[in-house]
Amino acid sequence: MVDGPKRRLPVVGSGPTAGPGAPSAPGAAPPRGATGSPEKRRLPVLQGGGGDDDGEERPPWHWIALGTVAIFIVWLPLAGLANTLLRRMIERTGDAAAEGSVRLAMVGLNAIAFALAGLAGGYLVGRFGGRAGRREAAASGAVVAALAWALALAEGAPAGALGWALLLVVMVAIGAAASYAGGRAGLRARAGAPPSS
After folding, report:
1. In angstroms, rounded to a whole number, what is the distance separating the alpha carbons of residues 121 and 101?
2. Distance CA 84, CA 66 (A)
């Protein structure tokens, strides 16, 4: 038995039409001796702007919401601490006469805690708020006061319509004034801060 010449399978890209510059089939290996490298596909990169910017600045009303959240975050622990201290005072004093003064102290300490939280939230808005300033800081304090008033109203404490209206006015005044003062302090701190590189 005589062996005939071995048949070789054709290589993709070789043949009469395949020359050094002829395109090969997609996904095929380049022919031997070819210097061309397969074309690389690049994925698009999402970029936020011109490159030098850090992104768009938040609109001022966003800072009202951020200030509101900041005030709540500071106010809740302060109010919890004040009420815990006052509860202990009530437990120690068994006098009915002393109970009225303790309740007055409870209202006063909660108002101070709310004012301190308003200062902190307003400072945040004034210091880092971009185009936001004192007005947005005061608005965030007023929003927190209105929300807290609505929660107290939903609990149904007996105060009467006039009492509830007066409470709303007082709470909004305290929240807006404290936050306005905090916003002013934050703007002063922003003006005195060295420019960021």
Report:
1. 30
2. 28
What is the three-class DSSP state of 36?
A: coil
pLDDT tens-digit profile of 71-122?
999 999 999 998 888 778 777 766 655 567 777 888 888 899 999 999 999 9
pLDDT, mean of residues 128-151: 91
132 and 68 in contact (C-beta within 8 Å)?
no
Contacts 24+ apart (CB under 8 A), 84-91: 85/109
Taking the whole predicted model, whether its pTM rises above 0.70 is answered as: no
CB of 152 closer than 8 Å to CB of 110: no
Whether residue 175 is predicted with pLDDT greater than 70 in this model: the reply is: yes
What letter would DSSP give residue 193?
Answer: S
Residue 26, helix vs strand vs coil = coil
